[in-house]
Design goal:
Length: about 270
Amino acid sequence: MAFDAFWDLYALPFARLEQRRVHDHFIVRDMHDGPMPVDFYVWVARRGEHTVLIDTGFGQQSAAKRSRPLTVDPVEALKRIGIAPQDVTDVIITHLHYDHAGSMDRFPNAKVHVQDREVGFVTGRCMCHAHLRLPFEADDVITLIRRLHAGDVVFHDGDDRLCEGISLHLLPGHTPGLQGVRVMTKRGTVLIASDAAHYYANVLECRPYVLSLDLTQTLDTYERLFALVDHPSQIVPGHDPQVRELFPRVEINGVELAVLHEAPRWPPIPVGR
């Protein structure tokens, strides 16, 4: 593959929930308890003038409603690092939980990429159950439907190719239509697992996250994550603060970025150590 086909890839943390502990995150609690914060990210892939945004985070309204204080509004953070919302060509929504699918209306020129199964889930009979509705915001779903009727939504049915160097991979379990994003970088393939693995410990230690809609699919997805990469260091989890420690970091106008196209320190610290 030609060098100019490689993408630069960044994790942009925009919020943190400090008051969480190990036992809040895992179905099996045979480990030491202790602090385990939640970081919230969006991810940015850039190559020349082409900018692909992976997830859109959430804004002030959801932050206040769910007591998830923002470090920085993710759209404003993108502006501060030189990415105008109108210049984003594609938005990949890994899944439609509130912390991944807010502010879709703020990227007017982007095509929005979602899985068939995810949209069917959030607009179907499963949403009759309050427990299943809890991680979603109706306003985000309505925004998606508005963009659908404006001709801005691209549906994917399982694995698919977005463009040269970026592919989408169905990784169900946490939700039925969660998709990971595989990006070709100068260090090789990097897989944004999103919430297919909230933390490194979920996949590396095979400890499922507490919010798993289908546990069998979740465990099968862990195996698939390994199959999609050459080395576990190429898997990037969706909420682990260790991403900010393992990867090189840069700061642009007060916005912190983890540089995912550079090699990380490895391995992560196991849970309970």
